[in-house]
Structure formats: structure tokens, C-alpha cells
Amino acid sequence: MTEKNGSGGGDLPASLEAAWGLRDRPAKGPKPGLSLERIVAAAVAVAAADGLGAVSMGRVAQELGASTMSLYRYVSAKDELYVLMQEAAIGPPAPLSALETGAGWRAALTEWAAAQRERYHGHLWALRIPIGGPPATPNSIAWWEQGLQALRDSGLGEGDKTSVILLISNFVRSEALMTSDLSAAVIARGITPEELAASHERTLKRLVDPERHPGITQQLETGVMSAPDEADYEFGFGMGVLLDGVEALIRRAADGEVKSA
Amino acid sequence: MTEKNGSGGGDLPASLEAAWGLRDRPAKGPKPGLSLERIVAAAVAVAAADGLGAVSMGRVAQELGASTMSLYRYVSAKDELYVLMQEAAIGPPAPLSALETGAGWRAALTEWAAAQRERYHGHLWALRIPIGGPPATPNSIAWWEQGLQALRDSGLGEGDKTSVILLISNFVRSEALMTSDLSAAVIARGITPEELAASHERTLKRLVDPERHPGITQQLETGVMSAPDEADYEFGFGMGVLLDGVEALIRRAADGEVKSA
DNA sequence: TCCTTTTGCGTATGCCATACGCGTTACTGC
DNA sequence: GCAGTAACGCGTATGGCATACGCAAAAGGA
């Protein structure tokens, strides 16, 4: 039962081992010509330039001037590379200023969500990477921890804290994914976002039946579809609703505490 | 400028044309041996049995006793098949009982979201299909319309109605996607959900540093991780928070109306 | 110095979507 | 009834993909 890593215990998934930097450098063979860091950086560059779909083992190797198969000396499968790319794209969270100034949970959560959103928007391709079960990479954990800190003084129970974090995290992801889908459609059809919106509105007007779809018909008449800065607006709207809901939850928790105290 | 469809106007994307049944049966050649419906049904069956990854043109053709290439007489590309599969999986919405009994927007939205969730949970593979821009398929539109109807008497403005619908739709998708990821992980590792949760908790305990991650450490100590029926609980929790937020929005809208009246 | 281990990588396998073209079929206009 | 035409089924070919396997070269440990 010889341990591979210094930390002891059972065997981690290969991708986690790599993400936490627990790989042991073997003392025997020739010097590695590449490194995990360089490979991940190259893959990230490809994804940023040409989308996640352009990330193939061959393409990444080419970018590094190496052969396709040499990558497999550093990465056990493409899925592992995906995990490391995602981890690199999101990066560690910056300190929350709202936590230092004691501005309260609402400001802290807002700042936290906005920071997360910014990372996603800077790396929209990362949203296309399929998640495999619950996250356990260093940066996801750091973001989770920071979310918990934002709720430090909220008075919520531990379970509720995680649930709120999860809820907001998923909301941020959803909004970014919508943005990503939109931009993908725009690129695929080679048009501007405005043209896409107009085209969509025209399509709807053709397909929607006023009898069967009175609500949508009304929406089309009101001209709601042609909203500018849609993504930013929807994000702010959603955060507002979400935080109001959390506020109600916190108030209820406080009332219950007072009652039971 | 001869029109292909009866409805007139410019050319729709092929997948939309198919979804709305606007394909014109050509009067010339031999009788088709297959049909879009049969192809989509076969593809859905494959996805249900072996996951979306198992859906290849070859596999679907095999299931139908036809050759791979014959499918391309009915479907212009695999993406189109995906759209039709998604549309078939979600299906049209059933009438909302809360709308008939006049139970109010909150009950209606709750029923609407639960129905949507049920469809997704019955076809988890459908969540893996990448969305291409804003939806315009018959069933997505029908669900959208129904959501608008649920908010009929809410007093919200048209723009807010759509935003709320979008917010809740995305939440339902997120929760279902988490479930799907979880079940994928469970299947991939050949273990029970309980074993997966336990394994994840063990992994976290090994990787989390009490100094750098005090919040998570506390969570682990409280034993929050080993929650049963996690998915159901999180869904109810999220819906509660969301609806409380919407309630605040509606109240504010009503107040504003009273003031400005 | 020899042996073990690890490196880079060429080759091969098997899957995939799909372009192209051919022979066949069935309807339409004459 | 017959020619023309258009849609059918599908065999074949192309190019891309992840990745298993094995070999030769490199480099540290004995």
C-alpha cells in the first residue's frame, strides 16, 4: 500500500489529482518536454480563439509543436483536460470588498455573483464543458467558500447557506449560458445581435397564432422582444428577484429564532 | 419567387420548418420508406436507453433497419434531429388546473414549474442537447404561452412577465441538469447515489483546509452534505425563494400602480 | 556500467458526420 | 401509355476524432 501523494488516503480521480497539483514528478526517466500548465494554457488559447469545439488533442499538440500522443503523458484523457481548462478559466476568486467593509450579506452576494458572472463572460466556452458530478477542484471550492463567507452574518442555517449559494451559482451559470448561446447563434449566422433579434421576432410573428397564443401575441404587439442590453438587464432583474427571495428567507429565519428564543 | 410552404414569407431554418410540420410532401418520387416521426422516435428511444451520446446517425438507422445515409433524406443534419428530439421529449404542456380554478399566480407558477421539471426528469438526456439561440419550436412556445397565462392576473408588465418566466424556466433547467449530472456520475462509476455522496464527502474532507476554508469545514462538521432526497429538496427550496422574490416584485408593481393612479 | 522507468511519438483502430453519385421508383404532362 | 423528371435508398469515400499499443531514446539509481 504505497502512497502516491503526500496527503495520504484513497485514490482521487486523475483530474482532481492534477488540479490540486498532487502529481508526483517521477525521478527516473528523461526530462519532460512539456508540462500540464503549458498544455492547459494552449488548450485555453485554442478555445478562446476558435471555441471549445476546436479543442482537439491534435490541435492542442500542434499549437505546442508536439505530437498528438505526447499529450497523453500528461493528461489521462480529454475529459481531464476539460476539467483543468475549466479550472484555469474560472480562476480563484478575488477578495470581496463588501466583506471587508462589513456591508452586509446582500452587497456581498451581489458582488460575489457579479464577479462570477464576469469570469464566465470572459470564457464563454467554459460553459460548454460538461460537469461530472459535484465539483471538488481548488477554484470551485474557493468560490464556494467565498459564497459561504458572504452569508456569514446572515443568520441562515448551514444547509440554507449552501442552498442559497447553489441557487445563485446556477442562476449565474444560466444567464451566462444564454449569452453564450446567443453569441454562438450570432457567430454561426454571421449577423449582428440586433439582426438576430429582429429575425427571431419576424419568425415568431409568422408562427404564433393569436388564438392559441394570446399572451405571446400581446408580447409581440407591446414590442418587448426588441430590448437592448438584454443580457445585462436580465441578470440584474434575476438577481433582484433572487435576493428579495433570500431576504424573505432570512427574515423568516430571524423571526423563527426570536420566537423560539 | 415560388413559396415552398403555405404560410408564406422568408425561409425558416430547416429544423423549425420540420418541427412545425411545414414540410411539403413532394408529389414526384417514390414513396418514402421512413418518416420524420419514426426517425425521431427511434432516436429518442436510443437516447432513453443508452444516453444522448449513443445517438449516432448509424445507430438510429440500424434501429430502423435502414442505412445510415437514408436518414439524410428526412433530416438535413444531426443538429436538426437534436432539435426534433428535444421537442418530442418535452412535448406540449398539459392544461394548468390552477388556471381553471382561479387559484392565483403563485399556485399556477408552481404547477407550471413542477410540470416542466417532470418532463425534464423523464428525459434527462434532452438537457445535453445544446440550444441554438432563442427557441421557436411549437412546444417551447406553448410552454412559454402557458407561463404567461399563469401570470395573467399578476399585474406585472409584459416585460416583467417574460423575465419571470425566463428566470423560472432557467431554474428548472438548472436543477434538472444537476440531477442529470449526478445520475451520469453515478452510472459512470457504477455506484449508488449514497456511495457517491459519501465518496464526495470523503474527498472534500481530504482536500479542504480548515484555515483557508473555514466555512466549508463547518459545513462538513455539521454534516449537511449527507442530505437525502437532495434534488427534490433543492427544487422546493429554490422555488420558494424564487416565488417569494416574484411576490415582492408584484407587490412593488401594485404599490407603484396605486401611487401613480 | 547496467537496469529500470519514463519520455516522445509513429502507427493503427474504430467511431463519427456527411458529401457525392448511381440505380431505381413513381408521379406528371403529353 | 409513354417520356421526362424528381425524390427515393444507399454504397462508397473523405476527413476528423480519441486513444490503445509498442518501440526507441533518455536519464537517474544501483
TrEMBL record, chains A, B:
PROSITE patterns: HTH_TETR_2
DNA-binding span(s): 56-75
Molecular function as annotated in GO: DNA-binding transcription factor activity; transcription cis-regulatory region binding
Keywords on record: DNA-binding, Transcription, Transcription regulation
The keyword Lipid biosynthesis appears for this protein: no
SUPFAM superfamilies: Homeodomain-like (SSF46689), Tetracyclin repressor-like, C-terminal domain (SSF48498)
GO BP: any one term: negative regulation of DNA-templated transcription
Annotated ranges, domain HTH tetR-type: 33-93
InterPro entries reported for this sequence: Homeodomain-like_sf, HTH-type_TetR-like_transc_reg, HTH_TetR, Repressor_TetR_C, Tet_transcr_reg_TetR-rel_C_sf
PANTHER family: HTH-TYPE TRANSCRIPTIONAL REGULATOR RUTR, TRANSCRIPTIONAL REGULATORY PROTEIN
Protein name per Swiss-Prot or TrEMBL: TetR-family transcriptional regulator
Originating species: Streptomyces griseus subsp. griseus (strain JCM 4626 / CBS 651.72 / NBRC 13350 / KCC S-0626 / ISP 5235)
Taxonomic path: Bacteria, Bacillati, Actinomycetota, Actinomycetes, Kitasatosporales
